[in-house]
Specification:
Layout lengths: L3 E2 L14 E4 L3 H12 L4 E4 L4 H8 L4 E2 L1 H7 L2 E4 L3 H12 L8 E4 L3 H4 L10 E7 L3 H9 L6 E7 L5 H11 L2 H4 L1 E3 L2 H32 L4 H10 L2 H11 L11 H10 L5 H16 L2 H11 L3 H10 L3 H15 L5
Parallel strand pairs: 2-3, 2-5, 3-4, 5-6, 6-7, 8-9
Antiparallel strand pairs: 1-9, 7-8
Helix pairs in contact: 1-6, 3-4, 9-10, 9-13, 10-16
């Protein structure tokens, strides 16, 4: 059984008079910095001089270059994109690390694959909210929080978990519940949902759209029925709130019968094989090596796939559907 921490298990006092340096002020960086500040945590923001720097200044944050933030912070939260963390670590963080400090991550990727190897005399921990940054902030402001994972990869001071839980409390995560895990588990699970689950969901929606259009349905009807009306999003929402199967009670008996009987016809073998292949490539490092090579080569495959995706007829259909819904005051 998983260990789950709540507000009563975490103490902001574990941060004492220490300065938390939030490195990166994007979606997660901004949300977490604002929440920590509102929780009374002393902090600074480290950023390059771009729009995120300007946003941090508009938010009233003390904003300094990354290297300065790394030198001044006692707890460094590295909330930059995975692909640039190693470069920032080697250039701005590593030269400024001192024994007893803490390096915190929002995702385990660079530690899991040993792309970043901190010295043995600092704490290495992770607080990974299970929600996009805007909702991390929205839930906090509303008096709640979003669930998160917490992990400790290196406990040099004996206070690594306490400090990580204090960060989790500061961003509001312990209000919802924080599950203890490892960097490896968090990374592998996150990558697998991205590579072994959501590709199947995306393929299913696209194939469904193409099937309906090929069988004479107007494209707008096909897109509206599959996801454009928001019904699919509401089903997912109720899965999380009421339960995966219990949400079916919100649908007609005809719907429930049709879904339950026809799912028995789905051959699980190829689905499981696809999932297993994705899992193997994550576990043995093949994906990490592939992604690193893609970055070195200037993202040729990534850019080509995005170009192909945005050339799909579904995009044009969405524009027409969006205009219809906007005219009715349904969609922004």
């Amino acid at each position: 059984m998983a260990i789950i921490y709540h507000d009563s298990d975490a103490d902001l006092g574990a941060l004492g008079e220490q300065t938390v340096a939030v490195l990166g002020y994007g979606n997660q960086g901004r949300a977490q910095a604002l929440n920590l500040r509102d929780s009374g945590v002393r902090l600074i923001v480290g950023s390059i001089r771009d729009e995120s720097w300007e946003q941090a200044r508009r938010d009233g944050m003390e904003t300094v270059p990354l290297a300065e933030a790394a030198a001044r912070g006692d707890i460094l939260l590295l909330l930059l994109p995975d692909e640039i963390q190693r470069q920032v670590y080697e250039r701005d963080i590593a030269p400024n690390l001192r024994a007893g400090r803490a390096l915190g991550f929002g995702h385990g990727y660079n530690i899991r694959y040993q792309l970043i190897r901190p010295p043995a005399d600092i704490d290495v921990s992770m607080v990974a909210p299970r929600m996009i940054g805007v909702n991390v902030r929205k839930a906090f402001v509303a008096g709640g929080g979003v669930p998160a994972y917490v992990a400790v990869a290196q406990d040099a001071t004996g206070r690594a978990l306490a400090r990580a839980l204090a960060i989790a409390k500061g961003i509001g995560a312990t209000r919802a519940g924080v599950i203890e895990c490892t960097f490896e588990l968090e990374t592998d699970l996150d990558l697998w949902t991205e590579q072994g689950f959501w590709p199947l969901v995306m393929k299913l929606f696209v194939q469904g759209y193409e099937f309906l259009v090929e069988n004479g349905f107007p494209p707008e009807m096909a897109a509206l029925e599959l996801y454009g009306s928001g019904e699919a999003a509401e089903i997912f929402h109720q899965m999380a709130r009421a339960g995966f199967f219990r949400q079916m009670s919100f649908h007609s008996h005809t719907s429930q019968y049709g879904t339950l009987t026809r799912q028995q016809r789905v051959d699980a073998a190829p689905l499981r094989a696809f999932m297993a292949r994705a899992w193997e490539e994550i576990r043995d490092g093949r994906f990490a090596r592939e992604w690193a090579a893609e970055q070195r080569n200037g993202y040729p495959v990534f850019e080509e796939l995005k170009k192909k995706a945005f050339a799909h007829p579904l995009n044009e259909t969405e524009e027409k559907l969006r205009a219809m819904l906007q005219a009715a005051g349904i969609s922004s």
